[in-house]
Design a protein that fits this description.
mainly alpha, 74% helix, 5 helices, elongated, 90 residues
Length: 90
């Protein structure tokens, strides 16, 4: 009975240790700066509209981010899409 208890305790400890590694590792998180960096790499100087749009992307509102960039900042759809994606991906 003692051997079974030791094996169960060991397996439980190993399970907790392994799962702790996965819980402790931070998830890759994008933010508004990633969105702005992408826009800069495409030749756009970050202005107030770009900052506002990327902030919405960071909060998960990609549609509003796209609307602001396309309609008000005159950024083409492809560039706006990837900028918003870069700012909001988790």
């Amino acid at each position: 009975m003692n051997a079974i208890r030791k094996i169960a305790t060991t397996l439980g400890g190993v399970t907790l240790a392994v799962s702790g590694v996965f819980f402790a590792a931070p998830a890759a998180q994008a933010d508004a700066n990633d969105c702005l960096s992408y826009l800069e790499s495409k030749g756009y100087s970050p202005g107030d509209l770009h900052v506002a749009a990327c902030s919405y992307a960071e909060r998960g509102d990609w549609e509003f981010c796209l609307d602001i960039l396309e309609e008000f900042a005159n950024v083409p759809y492809g560039v706006a899409y990837w900028a918003c994606y870069m700012g909001g991906m988790e």
